[in-house]
Amino acid sequence: MSSSPASTLDVEQHPHRPPILRVEATGDALSWAAEHREALRSAVVEHGSVLVRGLGLRDAAEVAAVFGRLSDGLMPEREAFAERQVHSDGVYSSTKWPANQPMCMHHELSYRLEVPGLMLFACLTAPTAGGATAVADATAVLDALPAGLVARFEREGWLLARSYNDEIGATVAESFGTDDRDAVESYCRANAIEFEWQPDGGLRTRQRRHAVVRHPVTGRRCWFNQVAFLNEWTMAPEVHEFLVDVYGEDGLPFNSRFGNGDPIGEDVVHLLNEVYEACTAREPWQAGDLMLVDNIRTAHSREAYEGPREVLVGMADPVRLTDPAREGTA
């Protein structure tokens, strides 16, 4: 175990576990957050993530106040791929996703042009088993991937294809904040999203994004995308088979491709997930925990779990990314 030399906070570092900061529970998490805001944010820049243990966060109102104090304002979620409960402005439940199915490593909303630079998580109820919000360093992932594969993704970017309907995944209204067609189309045009309305009223979209970006503070290259998580081969086999049978290959709620539109093979997706797993750090949640994650530098996941689990989420520090199409990316 070692502690950070560059931070005024005594952040513990252990192999295969996220950096942990243990604090004395005072019953006043908001005052602690105000006092340690800058040091904590510096520690997140240094380490990529920090799990704060001992604050004793108790309810959604307290979490919202702490999130607000630690950020410069929380972002509303747009282009969600699954439903969330809204607790207050910018404070959400975890994505509704079957407890027995893991959500593999990803960077939140990395398919948008404006992404959160900072993710905030707070655990109010810890599961009886599993359910960790694990993390993986995006620079380490990039270094571990085959050079040829990285070169192709850097050259072409990656493509996200989505199909919206009222039966599975987020609806148009949940994803875009409105079901007004004109407003949805205006949003798509402003955010480099191709769209096509279907005869049944559904919507299909395609958007091409960078797969590797430079960190806005450090300038380091980061593997930053949701190529593996939002690919058909990451789905449980029985779920994949059912969705293809019902909606067809082109009607899956989401699927990722190479930037030129070519399918991404099952072998590539498995390789990506294996590299993520080799780079994963995990720590079981305890009720009252707070976790801050640099969303550019660090991927996160949600592991399968048993029992009740309540983890609240906030997104902050918006970062505007460039549109590959406007840069002439092939």
Question: Topology of this protein?
Answer:
Blueprint: E1 2-3, E2 11-13, E3 20-22, H1 29-47, E4 49-53, H2 60-70, E5 86-88, E6 91-93, E7 103-106, E8 114-125, E9 129-130, E10 135-137, H3 138-144, H4 147-156, E11 158-164, H5 172-176, H6 181-190, E12 194-197, E13 203-209, E14 212-214, E15 221-223, H7 237-247, E16 254-258, H8 266-278, E17 280-281, E18 290-294, E19 298-302, E20 305-306, E21 310-320
Parallel strand pairs: 3-4
Antiparallel strand pairs: 1-2, 2-3, 4-18, 5-6, 6-21, 7-19, 8-18, 8-21, 9-20, 10-17, 10-19, 11-13, 11-16, 12-13, 14-15
Helix pairs in contact: 1-2
Domain TauD/TfdA-like: 30-314
Keywords: Antibiotic biosynthesis, Dioxygenase, Iron, Oxidoreductase
Cofactor: Fe(2+)
Outline of this structure?
This protein is of the alpha+beta class. Helices cover 26% and strands 28% of the residues.
